């Protein structure tokens, strides 16, 4: 951001009001120290300067900085301007009935649709606070270059902090949903005594790859990468056809399925599918082949194929033992919801302590819908028995 500080100072001046403009001169390379002294001389001007800097200028500048990459950018980051809850409704399709031309009293009867409802609420209200001494600010106003560095440090640190925390929270949400699918499927099958095909999870065969929990790595067989691509392709193609989808909640004991339901028809066209795999897995397999699998051009690979941090999703535990490594997922692009309901920045100069406090508020929500396809990819944990079988 070389030598943008003068432009920023004058932009703030142009939007800060008549009184500010009358007292704060237009900034040049020669009078930048004078501008800084005038801004800091009166608390009102100091607050105006930082408020306008953070609210109007910093947000534009931050977008151009090389700050925290949003690896989940493929998922929409919506705005929630009113309220703190979103209601999602899924209505089952009605069943067809034969027509024989005979009118009966059934025409007067009600046949209500089956409606499924889920709610997403604002569940993250956080803020960041920074304290900067007036001495630091005065030092920054000595030259445009120092002011460039100062403004960048303020805006980038706050943006990076928020970006990092949103990454951690989103990753944890995805890990929680992977565990939800695996646990709910296990409970449903235990209760019914049958395989539940409505809840999907791709369990990679041990003959293809296994997770070494000691060394935290996935060990692939000689032909494992090629076999894995076939599994991914089969799963991806199966999601595009209409199929039912179960949902429900496992209680804390993991022994009951509450609020269970089955949605009649779900489908995720290949064009809406997102495949997320760990970096090490992406390295092991042929990414070009994976791009062909999803009908992607090379320029689209980063858009629809997410590289996850190795171990980011963690492991799945059954009882007190780890039985699977959560190595990724395939989902409907619309299944992951992110939203912002409120953002605000403010500042306040403390004349007694001679420092300025800066605040950056963020309120929002992150969720994974149970009404959309989301299929965890599980790697079995290597055991002594499987190691012997491999030998």
Would you spell out the secondary-structure blueprint of this structure?
Elements: H1 5-15, H2 18-23, H3 32-41, H4 43-63, E1 77-79, E2 85-91, E3 115-121, E4 124-133, H5 134-140, H6 144-192, E5 202-203, E6 209-212, E7 217-220, H7 224-239, E8 243-250, E9 257-266, E10 273-278, H8 279-284, H9 287-293, H10 301-304, E11 305-308, E12 315-318, E13 321-332, E14 336-350, E15 355-368, E16 374-380, H11 384-390
Parallel strand pairs: 1-14, 5-16, 10-11
Antiparallel strand pairs: 2-3, 4-15, 6-7, 8-9, 10-13, 12-13, 13-16, 14-15
Helix pairs in contact: 1-4, 3-4, 4-6
Overall pLDDT score: 83
Termini separation comes to 58 Å
SSE pattern, N- to C-terminal: HHHHEEEEHHEEEHEEEHHHEEEEEEH
- Considering DSSP H and I runs of 4 or more, what fraction of the residues is helical? 25-40%
């Amino acid at each position: 951001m070389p030598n943008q500080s003068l432009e920023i100072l004058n932009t703030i001046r142009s939007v800060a009001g008549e009184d500010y403009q009358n007292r704060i001169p237009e900034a040049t390379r020669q009078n930048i120290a004078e501008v800084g002294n005038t801004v800091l001389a009166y608390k009102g001007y100091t607050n105006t300067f930082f408020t306008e800097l953070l609210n109007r200028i910093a947000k534009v500048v931050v977008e151009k900085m090389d700050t925290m990459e949003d690896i989940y950018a493929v998922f929409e980051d919506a705005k929630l301007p009113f309220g703190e809850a979103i209601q999602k409704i899924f209505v089952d399709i009605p069943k067809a009935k034969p027509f024989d031309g005979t009118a009966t009293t059934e025409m007067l009867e009600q046949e209500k649709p089956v409606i499924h409802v889920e709610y997403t609420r604002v569940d993250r209200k956080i803020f960041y606070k920074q304290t900067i001494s007036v001495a630091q600010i005065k030092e920054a106003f000595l030259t445009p270059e120092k002011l460039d560095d100062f403004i960048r440090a303020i805006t980038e640190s706050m943006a990076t902090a928020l970006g990092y925390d949103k990454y951690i929270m989103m990753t944890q949400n995805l890990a929680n949903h992977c565990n939800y699918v695996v646990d709910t499927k296990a409970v449903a099958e235990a209760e019914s005594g049958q395989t539940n095909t409505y809840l999907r999870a791709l369990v990679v065969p041990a003959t293809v790859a296994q997770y070494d929990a000691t060394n935290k790595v996935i060990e692939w067989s000689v032909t494992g990468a090629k076999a894995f691509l076939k599994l991914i392709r089969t799963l991806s193609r199966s999601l595009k056809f209409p199929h039912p989808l179960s949902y429900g909640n496992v209680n804390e004991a993991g022994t009951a399925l509450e609020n269970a339901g089955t949605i009649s028809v779900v489908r995720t066209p290949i064009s809406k599918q997102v495949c997320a795999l760990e970096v090490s897995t992406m390295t092991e397999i042929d990414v070009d082949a994976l791009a062909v699998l999803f009908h992607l051009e090379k320029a689209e690979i980063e858009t629809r194929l997410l590289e996850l941090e190795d171990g980011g999703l963690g492991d799945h535990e059954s009882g007190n033992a780890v039985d699977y490594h959560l190595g990724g997922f395939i989902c409907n692009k619309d299944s992951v919801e992110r939203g912002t309901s409120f953002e605000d920045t403010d500042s306040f100069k403390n004349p007694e302590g001679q420092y300025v406090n800066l605040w950056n508020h963020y309120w929002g929500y992150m969720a994974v819908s149970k009404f959309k396809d989301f299929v965890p990819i599980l790697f079995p944990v290597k055991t002594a028995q499987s190691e012997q079988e491999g030998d």
